[in-house]
Request: fold
Amino acid sequence: MKKSLLFFGSLLITTSLLVSFTDNATSQDPLQASIKRGKTVYESNCLSCHMNQGEGIPSVFPPLAKSDYLMADKNRAIKQVIKGLKGKIVVNGVTYDGEMPANDLSDQQVVDVMNYIRNSWGNKGKIVTIEEVKAARKMK
Ligand code: HEC
Reply:
């Protein structure tokens, strides 16, 4: 009886140590923390068109998952997500000629959603910063 209590006791301590360790790991890595927040921004502002796995809808909404177009130019992508996009673009060899409305997001939300889409579904990109978002707002 005593032994098993001891066992469960130490199990509990190990688990809580592990949990606080992983929590710390996320909050100490700015990119991982931003990606985590970005998922929420994505779900309420982008998912309806670009879909759950960033796969888009063929010929209507371009994919973000493994999108050569998205990953080719970080600053262009930030600007387009803020201001919207209209006209012909080619994503992974497929032409789209639709319109994305401007997204009404704070600088921090843009940072987070960019970090999420550039680091999900097989994408891997450098961290997007608040300075880059501020600069993109001024781009024509
Ligand atoms: C109402 C539907 C809609 C919503 C909502 C939307 N988009 Fe788009 N998005 C589009 C369309 C349509 C295009 C292509 C526009 C064109 O053909 O010129 C596009 C293009 C893009 C592109 C560049 C092309 C590519 O696939 O790499 C990115 C990046 C992007 N959207 C990200 C986002 C993000 C991030 C959000 C949320 C903050 C978002 N979009 C919300 C419809 C949408």
